[in-house]
Specification:
Acetoacetate decarboxylase-like; 2 helices; 16 strands; about 50% strand; globular
């Protein structure tokens, strides 16, 4: 198993209502799960290959809850990555070179019966976790946009987060609302649904706390 580690930020958007029941061990809002996520790496390595400044993204869909399986995933890898970096990013994103079920990427991949060949594209990720704002794109493949939830009476920005001390994706996040599209592998459109921002710090053994 190749030794790896990365640190960065995530913006994720799924089709659930604000709060996302999956975060509380409940079934998804609409009985199924569809999601788009972008991952910005500020520092990282996969073996001897540096991953600093690279990005990756994915779209995924499950006919029921994620843990019920039968999902489909479309990985998207930063076109700037060289061959060794592409191998590393794809391995991390699809749960390879990772202890069984140790990362959320590994869990998602294990719950997919179909993982499409990766698409290599320019990926732009502009995220501000504190402001709960995001504008992301994988050219020709995915888009993602995030904003704060607004108070229904006053129209003011509403701040809320989720604390998961033992979470396999994050320990704490910021919750907002998102809009996303995916056009290849897993076509979908998400509008004004659950979104979150969180810090990423992982290696092949799981989340680093």
């Amino acid at each position: 198993m190749t030794d790896w580690e990365l640190h960065g930020m995530e913006f994720g958007n799924c089709n659930c209502s604000y709060g996302c029941p999956c975060q509380f061990n409940a079934l998804p809002t609409h009985g199924n799960c569809r999601a788009v996520a972008f991952f910005k790496i500020d520092r990282g390595r996969f073996g001897a290959a540096k991953l600093d400044g690279l990005n990756m993204a994915m779209a995924a869909s499950w006919p029921g809850a994620v843990h019920e399986g039968r999902g489909t995933m479309q990985p998207v890898i930063d076109v700037r990555a060289d061959a060794a970096q592409r191998t590393g990013l794809l391995s991390i994103l699809t749960g390879k070179d990772t202890e069984p079920m140790a990362t959320f990427w590994a869990v998602f991949a294990a719950m997919c019966e179909k993982i499409h060949n990766p698409v290599y594209a320019p990926i732009t990720i502009d995220v501000d976790m504190t402001a709960r704002r995001a504008r992301c794109s994988a050219e020709g493949v995915l888009t993602g946009r995030g904003e704060p939830i607004l108070n229904a009476v006053t129209g003011k920005e509403h701040r809320v987060g989720i604390l998961l001390p033992n979470g396999f994706e994050y320990g704490r996040n910021e919750v907002g609302r998102g809009w996303s599209t995916s056009s290849q592998g897993v076509p979908l459109t998400l509008e004004d649904s659950y979104a979150h921002w969180c810090e990423l710090h992982f290696n092949q053994r799981g989340r680093i706390q």
